[in-house]
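Q: What would this chain look like folded?
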Amino acid sequence: MTDLFSPLRLGNLDLPNRILMSAMTRTRATPDNIPTELIAEYFAQRAGAGLIMTDCTAVSAQARGIIRGPGIWRDDQMAGWRIVTHRVHTAGGRIFCQIWHCGRVAHPDMRDGEMPVGPSAIPATGDFFLPPGRVDFPVPRELGIGELPGIIADFAQATRNARAAGFDGVELHGANGYLHDQFLQDGSNKRTDAYGGSAENRARLMVETTQAMIEAWEAARVGVRLSPSSYLYGVDDSDKRATFGTVIGQLNALGIAYLTLLEPNEKDAEKGVQINDVAETFRSRVTVPLIVNTGFDKAKGNAFIADGKADAVAFGVPYIANPDLVERLRHDAPLDEPDPSTFYGEGAKGYTDYPSLPEAKPE
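A: My prediction, written as C-alpha cells:
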C-alpha cells in the first residue's frame, strides 16, 4: 500500500519518501539577505526529507518583506545558496528554492524608505515587526500595469539563479497573503485593468509568473504553493471555490512539477473558512502531484495518501525540532517539541541544536 514512506516521482526527481519539509520563515540570513553556513547546516540536518523547500526567498530588493530573510537576486546571495545546496546534496537530500515577493506585507523602515507595493492601495491587516517594536502596515503603492512585466522577469531570473546555485527546482510562493495571493483574491485586488475584475484576470499574474519560471528552466522543476483557506494579512475573496478553482485549473494545465495546497489552520477556522477540506475540494482538478500541508501527523498523512486526496505531505513545525522526522515517523518515536520563542531570530539556538534520535535525551 502506498504511504508516507513510499517513493514518489515528482517532476523529473525520484523522491525516496513522501514526507516533505515545508517552506518556513526562520530569519537566519544576514541583514543584507545572504544565506549563511548556519542555514546550510540546518537544511543538511533535514536532508532525509523527500524534498526540502527553503524559506521564502526574495527575487529582488523590492520583494523583501522579512528582516534577515534570504534573497537570490545578487551574486553574493547565489554564492551563499551554493554552499547550502552542496551540503544538502552531500547529505543525500533534494531542495527547491521557494521564491517570493512580499507585496504589501512590508514596511518602509526595513526597505531604506521604499514603500511596499500591491495590486491596490489597500493595507495589510495586522502589524509588522521592527527592532524598536511592532508597527501598523502602511498603505501600499498600487503597482502600475507597466511594472508587472518587470516583476515577472524577476521571477524568471530568480529561477535561473536558483538553477545556477544548484537547486533541484523552484517553488512559487503564491500563498499566505503575499503578492501573488494579493492579486488573486478580490478582497485585496480592486483593479479594473487586465489583472483585476474576473477570477481569470486576477489569476493572470500567478499564471504568467509560473509560465516565465517554466521558460527559465522547465515545468518539471517548478512547483506552486497556494492557500485557499488562509486569511493571513487580511487577504480574502468573495468566492474562494471559484477563484482558486480557476487558478488551480490553469496551473495544472501547465504541467508543473507539483501543486501544494494548505489546509486551514486553527486561526483560519476561527474566522470561518469557506473551504474546510481543501484537498478534497480541488483534488479532481489536479493531475500533477498534489502536496498537502498544515496540521498533519503520520496517521492523517497516511490516510490522505491512501484515500487518494494527496500524493505527499509537507510538514512544517514538526521539522523545526525533529531534523530526523522521517525516521521518527517511521519508527513511531516521540517527537520533540519546538521552542516558539526561537522560531524567528538569530543564531543556532532553536535552529540547529535539536538532536536526532541517537542523540536524543532518554524519556
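The first helix runs from residue 37 to 45.
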